[in-house]
User: What shape does this take?
Amino acid sequence: LRIALIGYGNVGRAFAALLQRQRHAYPFRIAGIHTARHGTAYGDGRFGPPASSVEEFLDRAPSEIVAEITTLNPANGEPALSHIRAAFARGRHVVTANKGPIAHAYAALREQAAAAGVQLRFESTVMDGVPVFNMARNNLPGVKVLGFTGALNSTSKIVIEAMRQGQSMQAGIEAARRLGITEADASYDIEGWDSAAKAAALANVLMDARITPQDVDRRGIARLTPERVRELAANRKAVCLVSRARFNPTGIRVRVRAEVLDDRDPLAAVSGTSNLLLLHTDLMGTIGTAGINCGVEQTAYGLFSDAVDIARHAGSVQF
Ligand SMILES: NC(=O)c1ccc[n+]([C@@H]2O[C@H](COP(=O)([O-])OP(=O)(O)OC[C@H]3O[C@@H](n4cnc5c(N)ncnc54)[C@H](OP(=O)(O)O)[C@@H]3O)[C@@H](O)[C@H]2O)c1
Assistant: This one.
């Protein structure tokens, strides 16, 4: 199958490299790559001037699958949302690591994909490639997700760890940026927008919440200081940016907060780029998934696993 990439930053490059490494067992081909400022490439050619629009790019780069891997916009999910709709309009399946569209318009996108007869997959939007959505889809028949608790933002953890060692917030952000895991605008991580977008995506997909990141009761770590983190650490407490969702009598409550936890709490124990998500369910009680030291390689793997799944469903390839 052919895959057209929209976005070729940290994740896009790792995805292309993974497709290349796996090409003998999984013969995907890159149909083209489109970026905002670095131009557009068709087939396996070089980058030239950017296509005048994503529509033009998609028309000139025929593919079965489109990978939407552009920057997060927590305000409205655009332009990624329009990119995905342009792909659907051309009968293309979509894989994405961009949580904006899932956080803003999952229910509508699901209907539009079904009407177009194509698949929309988004495993990498939360917890990199660790199975969350695919696990719920494939392995939990009949189970209702009643809520979740997660430590889902790696940048905030690296920043808090840097502060515990007496460094500034800015030094922590730089350390996270060197790992390629911060959002292009790191304030989205620090102010909790990345966590709010992930929580909205989880609630929309797993709990049919139909909310946006703006509906999440959100407070980030912007006001945290190294002094406060060290004072808490001296008392065996840890600060962690935690996302929580629960059904309550008036609907679904979704919250992101820097919580003070006992330092042996499982949420506090997952450090650095490790993430933990607990799903609270009716039939399975509380179950969890964890990703230890995940990075862009694992985000790329989530896109890859979605593409393989689509290829299997399309029946065109026997993997
Ligand atoms: N990095 C991670 O660890 C991670 C993990 C999970 C999910 N994600 C998500 O994956 C996505 C990509 O992350 P990243 O780290 O790869 O970001 P990035 O390094 O900032 O790269 C973003 C890419 O998108 C392109 N782009 C931006 N706006 C565009 C537009 N309007 N049209 C076409 N291309 C556009 C950029 O083009 P230029 O190259 O021309 O600037 C760049 O190639 C984000 O949504 C992020 O939230 C990232």
In short: Residues 6-12, 34-38, 69-72, 79, 97-99, 124, 128, 180-181, 183-184, 296, 299 surround NAP (CB under 6 Å). The chain has a mean pLDDT of 95.
